[in-house]
Amino acid sequence: MLTSYKSIALMGLDGYITEVEVDMSLGGLPGYDTVGLADTAVKESKERIHSAIKNSGYRYPSARVVVNLAPADVKKEGTYFDLAIALGILASSGQLKSAIAPEYVIIGELSLVGKVRRVNGVLPILISAKQQGYTKAIIPFDNRGEAVHIEGMEVIAVESLREACEVLEGKRQPQIVEHIPWKPKRVEDDAHDMKYIKGQYVAKRALEIAIAGEHNVLFIGPPGAGKSMLAKAVPTVMPDMTFEEALETTKIHSIAGFLDERLGFLRERPFRSPHHTATPIALVGGGRNAKPGEVSLANNGVLFLDELPEYSRHVLETLRQPIEDGYITVSRHLMIVKYPCKFTLVASMNPCPCGNYGSKKHECTCSASQIHRYRAKLSGPLMDRIDIHVEVDGVSFEDLSDKSGQSESSAVVRARIEKARAVQAERFKGTDISYNAQMSNAQMKDYCKIDERSNLLLKTAFDRLNLSARGYNRILKVARTIADLDGSEQITSGHVAEALQYRSYDKNK
Amino acid sequence: MDTYEKKALYITALYGGLTAKQSKELYGMFSNAEDLWRNLRKRHAACELLGDKKYKVLCDNMTDSVYADSVKRLEREGITILSPHFNFEAKAFEAERNASTFDKTNETNRSTSTFDKTNGAERNANGLGNTYEAERNEEAIGGSVVWDYYDSPSVLFARGDTRLLETKMVAVCGTRKATGYGKRVAEVFTAAFVQSGISVLTGVSLGIEAVAVDVATKLGGNCIGILPCGFYALSDDRCARRIVDNGGLLLSEYAPDVGVMSYHYLERNRLLAMLADVVLIVEAGNKSGALSVAEFAAEYGKNVYAVPGELFSVASKGTNKLIKEMCGVALEPADVIRDFVDVYKPVEEVKNDYNFSEEEYKIIDALKADTTTVNGIVETTGIDAAKIVRILGLLEIGGIVFKSEDGYRLAVEL
């Protein structure tokens, strides 16, 4: 008998509805064949399904079974289809009599015992299914957290093959995933809140400017100065994610398999800090399954590169395109997957190999050429994308033990940032960019007009401080953000003067 | 130049690797250049003098074709060869050159205020110090002749304007790991030298010397550099290129294809002392190579000056020691310039009328109290960090403060 159920194949961030056709013929030698460009994991499902059916109290039919995953010219990967195939076999052998089964999109992996195991990517799967007009789905119980915020779908979570059958036959109450309306919930008193960072006023100010205008930041300072701490505080001052942003981010994490079952949907902006030994593939994505890389996992959040000169040049070079475009295409055999990767880059480095150059307390033991070479490592296209450079001073004992004085909390800083962002949203309405950092030269002519006084200032700075043309543009963009934070329509000389102090240190030859 | 002399000079310079003494002795063995050119192979005394290897190399290359190729390449690269055996036509231009650069540099550095003076912090103070007016002294120290020393080089490869060799020059030397203070001193002194028409001679290294080259070329002064390697081995040296692009002169004792070796630095330093009329060490640590220039200069009987630095600063330990032990102190550019011109008078001090606001004064006071970091100033004055950064930025552009590697410092007296 032939049964046909629906499942979904996932490619990148999108799911494609797959017809799972199961045909059983009683005459002839028993056998099991899967067709439709199934990969090894799918082909191996035969054994899983066999044991699962047996151990669920059903009979595995002695017949020739042919499973077709249509469309037959698209590669099928993953273990999503196990449940659908098993149900198809049961239906074809008459053990499952269900009229409603064909209406559901069925996904789940089977264990030998007959339990339905969790799979990656349930959220994007459900979104794709809904987009293609399917409103009913059966998913593994452990994946239910991903489905809670999707409205307009009936999603049933099953724990075992048996349960799935009984639910489909109407013999058992289904565990329907309840819809919970989306509400961004911020963790109060986050451990990385800004108020726990003592001193470092300049760095905090620079961060505020950076996040307001989505500029990338580089911290330069001795080891132990608190650069990592500052970086970790960044997600706490970023404005709350919108539903779309949370959805996008959760999708990506779901595919990568990083979603915690308890949390389901991601509420906080991601903070990724890959070690400097990471390979280019780990960073931008790829590999056998075209998995998203760190840059995509950091989408809508922060990518923190600690000790920037330690990363290989090759790795840094591969970062250039994602930062520039905001998405990354991972090409694989027969397939091109496009992941978004809009993130804020926060990088840190020491002033020199030993870390003490410029410190009044510790002597720098590096030779002049060592320092020169260390700083020269950071040149090129990546550095061009980092608009703000800040020096982070070392921490003195007095700073640490000072119990008095309260630093501003993240909430206060965030409020200011949100105001500045609102100004930018208004300014760039109707254009294809959202933040000051993304302005092109033409847009800068329109939005970054400066008065005569500021112009003179920049000119003098140009000569006296040995600026480059690139540096000029960056400073203007940052000045625009500073003016926005100041609530000022016009960029004044004060704004330019401040922006100048965050300029890149290629002045320091 | 007579062809045979030129040929012999070029080949011995490029392929010989001879010391001055060897070169002199070699020439002594022949009656004239033509004799050398034709008969080198036959003179076995030369083989004993030079050693087998060098002799063979020299003989193999003493051909017209090698000469023609070499000349072509050298001309393409703009390299000339100077030698004690042949005069070069520089002397006639000396007076003319000095006079013209003297006038030119005095004009370019008149203080130009580019924006209005209402805001004290935005004032464009000429952060480079006072301007000098120097009267020329006809009997002042003249250009050194580099061939007269017991350890003179045998040849010098040159790129650029060789007439500069006849000008009065100061060797500006210092550590490669310069502090903000040292760089500032180098800026001020070099600017003053340029204004007084004195050429600036450096070893074109990183740090102090790079600053001197930058300032000298920016102000249109005469700049001479001595390299520790041959010209082709220069690769991508920004400073060296600046010197040549701005009408300066680059010198090297080594054949163009000789790369840098560690012992070249000392050899180059002796040339600095040889060529200079006066030596100035701006900032040097205990073991800095710049100190060797001072030693050579003392040996050659030249005046040496050093600029003192903070007692506890590692970068100034060498210069401070020099002052204690042997050389003169330079507390302002006039101290060095006095050696060149008899009478000078600094132009009346431009007493800038700063109109600082109360907050600006608070910040300046903090800087005076040696609080160099912005975070420190925030804590001392209580002013908002953003505002402090803003004010310091304006002050920096106006030349009132400068940014060194450990924070901000005052550039002028307030």
Key words describing this protein structure:
heterodimer; A: alpha/beta; Ribosomal Protein S5, domain 2; 18 helices; 19 strands; 18% strand; B: 414 residues; Rossmann fold; Arc Repressor Mutant, subunit A; 9-stranded mixed sheet; two-stranded antiparallel sheet; 13 strands
What does it look like?
The complex is a heterodimer of chains A (509) and B (414). Chain A is α/β, with parallel strands linked by helices and 509 residues long. Chain A contains 18 helices and 19 strands. In chain A, a hairpin with a 5-residue loop joins β6 (109-110) and β7. In chain A, α5 (201-213) packs parallel to α14. Chain A is elongated and about 90 Å long. Mean pLDDT of chain B is 77; it is low at 87-143. The N and C termini of chain B lie far apart (59 Å). Chain B has three domains: 4-103 and 134-146, no CATH class; 162-344, Rossmann fold; 348-410, Arc Repressor Mutant, subunit A, CATH 1.10.10.10. The longest helix of chain B is centred in the middle third of the chain and has 16 residues, at 180-195. Helix content of chain B is 43%, strand content 12%. The A-B interface holds A 199-202, 204-205, 351, 357-360, 363-364, 366-369, 371-372, 393, 453, 456-457, 459-461, 464-465, 482, 493-498, 500-501, 508-509 and B 114-115, 122, 124, 175-177, 205-207, 210, 238, 314, 372-376, 378-379, 385-386, 389-394, 396-397, 399, 405-407.
Which class of the largest domain in chain B in CATH terms? Answer: Alpha Beta
CATH architecture designation of the largest domain in chain B: 3-Layer(aba) Sandwich
- The count of DSSP E runs of length 2 or more, i.e. the number of strands of chain B, is 13
Alpha-beta classification of chain A: alpha/beta
Kindly give the count of domains of chain B.
3
Oligomeric category: heterodimer
Per DSSP, the total helix count of chain B is 17
Biggest β-sheet of chain A, characterized?
5 strands, parallel
Task: Output the CATH class name of the largest domain in chain A.
Answer: Alpha Beta
Beta percentage of chain A is 15-25%
Structural classification of chain B: alpha/beta
